[in-house]
Design the sequence.
């Protein structure tokens, strides 16, 4: 999944980003509210991790504006403020959850999973479609009961398709969801990952259909 991290403490931001990337997530990092706004104007994210005290303002102002614009991206607030009133204020402004600094990275990861499950309306993490069973948290995928080993980027590509079977994804859309802004992506990178994923889906009743000049779609073959 692709997350936006808004945090001005570089040591903390690097630690969070490193842990999230180990789990296969794509992380864009903004050090201030201005950069955060620029990111969400051009990119799509499954989750925003938002610090409150930032160099150019209060993160809750960003949160309020984010919700006022009808964006429903889940937001977890990262706050050093321990007062109950501050936490209630964040939740009332539209935060889905909060984590008080200092926090254990395992707790943050667990809260991210919980928020994403609630937003999807599914208490389970496992996705099942046809002969495919996929757990995005553990990164385990089986085809008709057979375990298939996949790399992180391939897993995230599979997750995108499984969450929206039948939906068409353009190359630009897939690139935006799979890579961060600071990564140098070649023109044929998406084709390479699509080719790898097709091999992993061999023996299943799912296939990735190419719509020339438009994009790709996951189809269930009867």
Sequence:
């Amino acid at each position: 999944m692709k997350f936006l991290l808004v945090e001005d403490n570089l040591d903390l931001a690097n630690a969070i980003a490193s842990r999230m990337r180990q789990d296969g997530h794509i992380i864009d990092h903004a050090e201030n509210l201005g950069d955060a706004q620029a990111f969400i104007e051009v990119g799509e994210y499954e989750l925003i991790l938002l610090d409150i005290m930032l160099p150019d303002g209060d993160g809750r102002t960003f949160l309020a504006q984010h919700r006022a614009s009808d964006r429903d991206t889940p937001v977890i607030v990262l706050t050093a403020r321990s007062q109950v009133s501050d936490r209630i204020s964040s939740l009332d402004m539209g935060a889905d959850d909060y984590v008080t600094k200092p926090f254990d990275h395992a707790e943050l990861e667990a809260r991210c999973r919980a928020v994403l499950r609630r937003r999807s309306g599914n208490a389970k993490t496992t996705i099942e479609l046809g002969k495919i069973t996929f757990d995005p948290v553990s990164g385990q995928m089986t085809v008709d009961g057979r375990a298939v080993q996949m790399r992180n980027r391939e897993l995230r590509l599979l997750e995108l398709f499984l969450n929206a079977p039948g939906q068409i994804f353009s190359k630009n859309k897939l690139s935006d969801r799979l890579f961060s802004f600071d990564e140098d992506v070649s023109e044929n990178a998406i084709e390479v990952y699509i080719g790898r994923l097709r091999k992993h889906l061999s023996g299943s009743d799912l296939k990735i259909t190419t719509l020339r000049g438009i994009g790709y779609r996951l189809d269930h073959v009867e």
Observations:
- The longest strand covers residues 206-211.
